[in-house]
Amino acid sequence: MILGLGLAFTGLAHLVADNLAPWIETNAPGLRKFSLTSHFFWLIVVSTTIGVTLSFTRARQYEGAGASRIGSVFIYFLVATIGMKMNFAEIIHYWHAIVVGIVWMAIHVLLLVVVARLIRAPYFFLAVGSKANIGGAASAPVVASAFHPSLAPVGVLLAVLGYALGTYGAWLCGLLMQGVAPV
Questions:
Q1: How far apart (Å, rounded) are the C-alpha atoms in residues 88 and 99?
Q2: In 10 A of CB 115, how many CB atoms?
Q3: In whole angstroms, what is the distance from residue 142 CA to residue 77 CA?
C-alpha cells in the first residue's frame, strides 16, 4: 500500500510537472528567472506538497508500517541518479561553489549554536537538528538514538520537517543567491 501510494502520487507529480512547466514557459516566459519553467522544480515542489498534505490525512498511519524506511530507500535512488549525471572534473572550474558551501555550513553551525543557547535547548536538539537538516531521515535517527534509543522518532520527525521546509527554503535561498550573483 505504501509503495502504491508513493508511486501513484509520484506519477501525479510528474503529470503536473509535465504540463505545468511547458504551460508557464509558453504563457509566462519571464518566470524562467524564478525556475518556474523547470520540470524538475515542479516535480519536487508538487511531490513535497502532496507529502505534507497527506500527513494531515489518514495516510499518516502508514508511518507505523515503515513509510520512512521505504522513503529513505527512494531518497538513495534519487541521490544516486543525480550523482550519475555529475562531472567531478568540473569542480576545478566551480571552486567558488565549494566556498559558498563552507560559508553556508558555518552559518548553519553558528545559527544552531546561538539559537540553542538563547532557548536553552539541550545539546541533543542541536546535534539531531543539525543532522536532520544535513543528513536527513537516514542519519538523524541514528544520532538521536546515540543519546537514547527512545529518541529515534524525534530524529525522524526533525528530518521530515527539515525535508518539507528545505524544499521551499532551498528555492527561496536560490532566488536570493541569484539576486546577488554577478550577471
A1: 16
A2: 13
A3: 20
- Who's near 102: CB < 8 A, 6+ residues apart? none
The domain segmentation of the chain, as residue ranges, is 1-86, 92-183
Helix 39-54, helix 2-27: angle, nearest 10: 140
76 vs 121: which has the higher pLDDT: 121
For residue range 96-131, what is the model confidence (pLDDT) as tens digits? 888 888 998 899 899 989 998 999 988 888 888 888
Other CB atoms within 10 A of residue 161 CB: 14
The answer to whether 51 and 43 have CB atoms below 8 angstroms apart is no
CB contact at 8 A, 128 and 142: no
Grid cell listed for 149: 534509543
Quickly list DSSP for 101-145: HHHHHHHHHHHHHHHHHHTT--HHHHHHHHHHHHTGGGTHHHHHH
DSSP H helices, the chain, are 2-27, 39-54, 67-84, 95-118, 123-134, 140-147, 152-180
Residue range 126-169, pLDDT digits in tens: 888 888 777 766 677 777 877 877 777 777 777 777 777 877 88
What SS3 class is residue 67? helix
Joined grid coordinates for residue 92: 576545478
